[in-house]
Amino acid sequence: MTKMKVGYVALIGRPNVGKSTLLNKMLGQKVAITSDKPQTTRISILGIKTTQKGQIIFVDNPGIHKPLHNLNKRMMSFVYSALETSNLINLLIDVTLKFGHGDEFVLETLKNISTPIFLLINKVDIVKKEKILLLIDKYKDLLNFKEIIPISALKGTNLDILEDLTYDNLPEAQKIFSDDEISDQSQRFLFSEIVREKVLSHVKQELPFVTAVYMDRLEDEIKDSSPNALSGNKKQVQYINATIFVEKETHRRIVIGKQGRLIKTIGTQARQELEQILGKRVYLDLWVKVKENWRDSPDVLDLIESQK
Ligand SMILES: Nc1nc2c(ncn2[C@@H]2O[C@H](COP(=O)(O)OP(=O)(O)O)[C@@H](O)[C@H]2O)c(=O)[nH]1
Ligand SMILES: [Mg+2]
Fold it and tell me: Which superfamily does CATH assign the domain made up of 187-305 to?
């Protein structure tokens, strides 16, 4: 019997460096939402890649940042626990950004960890080679990296190398998940995230931080009552109701937009993606509700986490 390589790989880095994009690309499927706004990922999710060599279990994490709200404290607790439980850490950095306090904070977080760390210099598709070399030079003495790999998560550059080197650093073990499992999140959670992704893509300033989505209803209904419906040729429609939480009335007005135009666009984009995943028609009903200070409310945070 051939020996399998199996283990957990934590994706770590500042907000927006491309952790979720890398996860989706490695899996060849969208399991995590992405956006150009910071703090898109709030809860750690697993992405499982099974190949002939073994199983790589990626742990996509919230970005490393100094927590100010209870929400952010919870986000960071996911990061710390991922660091403690993984076999390998992939630290991502954005090659287009200057080294700053945020990076120092990240390195500080990783200083006392004995797990091997890869430095992944991401977004190399949009910079010149010299810039990559400068960053390698800057980072190579800051921490004892096992490997330093320039990648493009978006374009897929060097991800084959990353996969090979990852297997080299994982222990021999039995597979943990079955071959067809790709994530540990529920469909309900993924769907609420897709709605949130569409909100994030249309709003600016503080709104991404104060937006949360909860799925109220997610059910199939057979719409067609014609004789065909009984013969198995059913036209199924999925009814989905979701609530978008924001913190203030002004936020609510922004998300709804003039004459409800923005919420309509958000709804249409989310519905189209959900229909693609489900392969059937979707009726999506969105409500926008004001819930003051939900980021510090344990009840709302529990409710949202309970969806996963
Ligand atoms: N040009 C380029 N953009 C990228 C790359 N990887 C991620 N991005 C973009 O960077 C933004 C943040 O990505 P995301 O995966 O959400 O970052 P996360 O917060 O670390 O999970 C998104 O707009 C991505 O499309 C890359 O390799 N090249
Ligand atoms: Mg993310």
Answer: K homology (KH) domain (3.30.300.20)
